């Protein structure tokens, strides 16, 4: 039974993924920063007699990672699958984002997965087997106004993933990038990064439009279970891909952004009325704001 370590499993995508992998032939080590939140996951696993262990792990702390990985190797064996899911969100224009918040997002969303990869990769390389799954976002492919810190951190992780996939292919290790759109989770509520809207701000228009994009996504949001199923597919398929988009909105944004020029994308931030902006967004991306 392959051993899968999943980060950020107290809620949302991580919660669903830990249970889904355990239901489908994996011995799961479900990690989270705060074990006080472990009750619902442990109860769900017990109800189905799933092979799942909850372990404390804070991806922003090297010592926490080392302890969790060592404990997993001692108790469950070598880690065959790493799912880097833990992360934080936030929505604020760059000028209004305090540097500590910007750095915190990179610590969790970029450096956390990098630390995790460095902890498990030597064993995978030596055994010439393993799979690393990095959960990014459609914001990691389409640079998103009002979410620059979050978008940049996910872009960085996606870039590292693409290069890493090339680096480790010769060792039998696979890398997959999961790119969800709007998913019904509590990422913003659980986030250290702030989500701000100020009616008096010179950036109020871009804030409002970003909010309308999320509102459009939440009219028919993706579910964590759908992301979990995609992660299982990425791990087990005999025809692996590098990137997996999840959600109708993610597919529309990715396809639309690829069709338009950089200049057309930038021009949308110019002096368009809301009606003009909405019509252009619908034309480019197929999304009603």
Description:
- With 289 residues, the chain is an alpha/beta fold.
- The protein has a single domain (3-203, 221-255), classed as NAD(P)-binding Rossmann-like Domain (Rossmann fold).
- It is 50% helix and 13% strand.
- It contains 10 helices and 7 strands.
- It has helices at residues 12-23, 39-47, 62-75, 99-127, 148-168, 204-219, 224-236, 248-259, 262-267, 274-285, and strands at residues 3-6, 27-32, 52-56, 81-84, 130-135, 173-180, 243-246.
- It has a 7-stranded parallel beta sheet with strand order 3-2-1-4-5-6-7, with helices on both faces.
- β2, α2 and β3 (52-56) form a beta-alpha-beta unit.
- α1 (12-23) packs across α7 (224-236).
- The longest helix has 29 residues, at 99-127.
- The radius of gyration is 19 Å and the shape is globular.
Write the layout of secondary structure elements.
Layout (H helix, E strand, L loop, with lengths): L2 E4 L5 H12 L3 E6 L6 H9 L4 E5 L5 H14 L5 E4 L14 H29 L2 E6 L12 H21 L4 E8 L23 H16 L4 H13 L6 E4 L1 H12 L2 H6 L6 H12 L4
Parallel strand pairs: 1-2, 1-4, 2-3, 4-5, 5-6, 6-7
